[in-house]
C-alpha cells in the first residue's frame, strides 16, 4: 500500500518539492523524504491538510526523542508490518549510499551493512527489528535514529525554516 502511495505522490511534484526544500535535499526526489511525506499524509489521500502539516512539522522541528523514534521507525517499516526486515534495510541502505561501490558485486557492501545493523540493533536475535529493538538501540546510541537513511531535517535547516516561517511581519 505504501508503494502505491509513493508512486502517487511522485505525481504531486509541487507538494513534495516544497517538502524536499524544507528537508534540504534541493528538489531531488529522495525516497526517504517521499516516505516521510507519506507519514505526514495520515489519511492517505495524497494531500497534506493544514492539520497534518502542522502535526507533522511539530514532530520534525520540536519532537521528543520518543516521537522522532516513532516517526523514523514508521518510515523505515516500508510494508507497515511492525518490523524492519533485512530486505527493508537493504533497500533503504542501498538508496542512501552516496557512493556506490565500484567492485563487481556492489550489493555485497550493502549486505555487510545490513548484517552490522542487525548485530548492533537486533536485541532479541529474531533477524528483524521490532520497535522495542529500535528504541533500545537508539537510546543507547542516538546516532542510530537515522540508521537507514535521513528522515529528519538537520538543525541548521530547522532553524532557518523556523526563522522564515515565524518571522514577524512588519506592522
Ligand atoms: Ca516491515
Ligand atoms: Ca528483533
From TrEMBL:
<keyword id="KW-0677">Repeat</keyword>
<dbReference type="InterPro" id="IPR028846">
    <property type="entry name" value="Recoverin"/>
</dbReference>
<dbReference type="GO" id="GO:0005509">
    <property type="term" value="F:calcium ion binding"/>
</dbReference>
<keyword id="KW-0106">Calcium</keyword>
<dbReference type="InterPro" id="IPR018247">
    <property type="entry name" value="EF_Hand_1_Ca_BS"/>
</dbReference>
<feature type="domain" description="EF-hand">
    <location>
        <begin position="64"/>
        <end position="99"/>
    </location>
</feature>
<feature type="domain" description="EF-hand">
    <location>
        <begin position="109"/>
        <end position="144"/>
    </location>
</feature>
<dbReference type="InterPro" id="IPR011992">
    <property type="entry name" value="EF-hand-dom_pair"/>
</dbReference>
<dbReference type="Pfam" id="PF13499">
    <property type="entry name" value="EF-hand_7"/>
</dbReference>
<dbReference type="Pfam" id="PF13202">
    <property type="entry name" value="EF-hand_5"/>
</dbReference>
<protein>
    <recommendedName>
        <fullName>EF-hand domain-containing protein</fullName>
    </recommendedName>
</protein>
<dbReference type="InterPro" id="IPR002048">
    <property type="entry name" value="EF_hand_dom"/>
</dbReference>
<feature type="domain" description="EF-hand">
    <location>
        <begin position="36"/>
        <end position="63"/>
    </location>
</feature>
<keyword id="KW-0479">Metal-binding</keyword>
